[in-house]
Amino acid sequence: MPGCFRLGWQHGLLDEVYKARDVGVNSFVLFPKVPDALKSPTGVEAYNDNGLVPRTIRLLKDKFPDIIVYTDVALDPYSSDGHDGIVREDGVILNDETVYQLCKQAVSQARAGADVVSPSDMMDGRVGAIRSALDAEGFNDVSIMSYTAKYASSFYGPFREALDSNPRFGDKKTYQMNPANYREALLETAADEAEGADILLVKPGLPYLDIIRLLRDNSALPIAAYQVSGEYSMIKAGGALN
Predict the structure, then answer these.
(1) In contact, 192 and 145? CB cutoff 8 Å
(2) pTM of the entire structure?
(3) Which family does it belong to (predicted)?
(4) Helix H segments across 64-178?
(5) At what angle do helices 52-63 and 12-22 cross, to 10 degrees?
(6) Among 25, 45, 60, 142, which residue has the least CB neighbours within 10 Å?
(7) Of these residues, 61, 172, 203, 236, which one is catalytic?
(8) What class is the 13-236 domain?
(9) In 83-203, where do the E strands start and end?
(10) How confident is the model over 119-162, as pLDDT tens digits?
(11) Which of 19, 33, 63, 150 is labelled catalytic?
């Protein structure tokens, strides 16, 4: 993907942030590439206060105190199974056990200085649980950008390969959304609003402009969209989205 790189947290990243600020960009989202040796079935590295993401947040906030740092809240970069949640022996994703880990991850990121935590895992009830966990630790001002409508998609392929976070077995269709079911986006919108989300996000972006419009028409919250790696690759290659 031309122009896209994995960056070292101490050097390359700081250079990119400096250049981005020069052209008026002041908000940044972090996605980690975690060594296999630190991955586990329950993703415990996700809430290591001295892990890659917390160290990076602290560095960025020290060098650029006024920037806005968004973080990703999900277990897949830290999971030896490559899934967003904890996987039972029979392949079932354990929702509540995963949410418990996500709360610890979000608090760890907030403790490091994150401004916005962004649960991308698609577990049920995670927005409310994260809000409660943040508030209990005194992080009332840390916002939540929820991946409200995250559809199962092949467009995620290049990103997963870059982070080596492809599922080791199965797929993510049991917890990511069915592209044919637009009504589910309305249910997720209502749930996320009720649980305390501050921003609602649609992913992928361009193939789901109708869903972005649907959320805009049915919510007063800010609506965000994520153009993912596969979309970017097609556009750079001169392709088209059908």
Answers:
(1) no
(2) 0.90
(3) Belongs to the ALAD family.
(4) 95-112, 126-136, 157-163
(5) 40
(6) 25
(7) 203
(8) alpha beta
(9) 86-87, 93-94, 116-119, 143-150, 199-203
(10) 999 999 999 999 999 999 999 999 999 999 999 887 776 766 76
(11) 150
